[in-house]
Amino acid sequence: MSTGYSENSSLRRVQTIADYQFGGNAGTALFPEGCGFLLSTTGRIRQILYGGVRLATVRASDGRLTLGIEGAKRLMACLPAPAYRVVIRDDVASFVAKGMNAFAKHVVAADPAIRAGDDVLVVAGDGRLIACGGAVVSGAEMLAFNYGVAVKVRQGSEKDASGKHQSTPDEGDDEEARHERRAD
């Protein structure tokens, strides 16, 4: 008896999770046909990939999705503003894009429906995606507080899909080679 899921079953499963977590038809927009899956040693879905790039990870603790930057881009395209968006000041956008946390004092606007623990999209004033991460406080609290972390950034837009800062061509990234060996 097989304990694994079929590709079609896995796709339907993660689409259903996304529909529940983000509402509407987020599942089909976030996870199109042709997604690949990385499974845990117990056969559970851990990461959802599209074209070799991570869109999201299924958290083992509660079964919810944590978005990668590519998944955040897809979600942003299908959800109308201000859904799951936290708008930050433009003068700190470059720091947050590098993966630094977004602080409450830098939040200009936030979706009032955001709850602590939700995965959110961090955007600049002009609407471009800066980062994605987990909300530490609710959307209303982000605007009310003058201190503390509002969004714990998981991945900034200036990092590649693996979550690492993009290196310049002359740096020679040995860590990437070690990661490739570990994946086997």
Class based on secondary structure composition and strand pairing:
alpha+beta
Q: Count the helices. How many?
A: 6
Order of helices and strands: HHEEEEHEHEEEEHEH
Largest sheet: 6 strands, mixed
Residue share in helix: 25-40%
Radius of gyration, whole Å: 17 Å
Instruction: Please list the strands of the largest sheet in the order they lie side by side.
Output: 6-10-9-8-5-7
Count of β-strands? 10
Report, as a whole number of angstroms, the end-to-end distance.
Answer: 25 Å
Mean pLDDT: 85
Give the CA-based shape. Answer: elongated
Strand content: 25-35%
Q: Extract low-pLDDT stretches.
A: 161-184
Describe the structure.
The chain is of the alpha+beta class and 184 residues long. Helix content is 28%, strand content 27%. It has helices at residues 7-22, 26-30, 69-78, 93-97, 139-144, 174-183, and strands at 36-39, 45-50, 53-58, 65-67, 85-88, 102-103, 107-110, 119-123, 129-135, 149-156. Strand 3 and strand 4 form a beta hairpin. It is elongated. The two termini are 25 Å apart.
